[in-house]
Amino acid sequence: MNFLACLSITTGLVVSSSLPATSIFPLLNRSYDKTYTLDKTELTTSNPGISAALPPVYFCGESVPLHEEQVARRLIRALVSNAVQHQVLYQIRQRAANFFPVIEPILARHNVPTDFKYLPLVESALRGYAVSPSGAAGYWQFMPATARELGLRVGAGHDERRDLIKSTEAACRYLTYLYNRLGSWTLAAAAYNNGLGALLGNIRRQQQRDYYYLRLNAETGKYLYRILAFKELLSNYRSYEGIIPDRVMASLSRPLSSDKDAGADEMLIPEVFVEEAVELAVRTGNRESATGGVSSEIPLPNAADVFRGGIKAKLAESAGLQRGQVWVFHLTRDGMTDGRQVEAGDILYATVEDIDPKTDKVYLRADRLYSTSNKQTYNLALAAVDASTGRIGIRVPDVEQVKAGWILTWKAL
């Protein structure tokens, strides 16, 4: 169910002078096993230095046993990992400021602890159009079947996993179900990631109901620590001076933008016109497809114009190789298109207008572009073209090509 992998750990750790370097660095440098477990037999000795460096931490009212060396070490590793790219962390803070006021009342209405508002930060970085390789999507990263079981509509033209309010309501129903089965919010969080059946299997085999002592797969073993890391960084970061770098501390104390929509541009603003684009694609289809009676090989006036007047955009997210699906592209450089200046980073929302199995071509059309600099949406008509010929339609002999990083050329129609 997880989409957003934790940021990789890099150099840049700063250790407070009050805490000897040897009390933290050896802990972080120890290698991990393929399974995460805390063996009580290994806890005959403790490390008072590392425990003293950390404040008390709680998850849903349950105390995190930071007096245990390995628990403290894993939390520090998660804190450092989440804090490495401070610019990304600032964007996540901005999104949280915009969306937590929506999420919190829903959690309260369902009697789900407020700490679960940090879970979608781990799952999707609070990006509604996040899609995992396994097909999980939306803020809470539900698989299609799970979403439908929870009452969400999932279809080619409408996907309620991308609706913040409806998907949060569904997440609350699911978390409440998990809590009722497991009796612990900590275990409910683990089951959200690993699945109830898999977690119950581990509990039965190991005769252990404490998350911190269970032997779990690496992802689930890290999962709660990643949630805790976001909670601490966003609500209690000053307690970790000397553990996270000074530049990250500066980023965490940096005032957020006063613009209500700042940081939300990839989640809520485009969703209205994305739905319109999907409906239009499903209703009208592709008028230039070979199956529509008009040759798909009609060239643009001059193929060389592609390189002079076209723009390049890199695929960020694809919802699937199906007609009506919306793909998200980010422009790779500044340029001009349809008489308008565009900039690298602007967001292009393209609809899969048609797929021609005879030629293995996919036809992508974009009607609007969202400017990240001035936060406005512009109407324009663009089509993805074959850069070698200037013709509309992109040949996709291998579906594996359709993944993040795929760069296409776009031309105004």
TrEMBL record:
Q: Which domain of life is it from?
A: Bacteria
Q: Where is the signal peptide?
A: none
Q: List the Gene3D superfamilies.
A: 1.10.530.10, Dipeptide-binding Protein, Domain 1
Every copy of the Transglycosylase SLT domain together lies at 108-211
Q: Which CDD domains does the record associate with it? A: MltD-like
Q: Which family does it belong to?
A: Belongs to the transglycosylase Slt family.
Q: What is this protein called?
A: Lytic transglycosylase catalytic
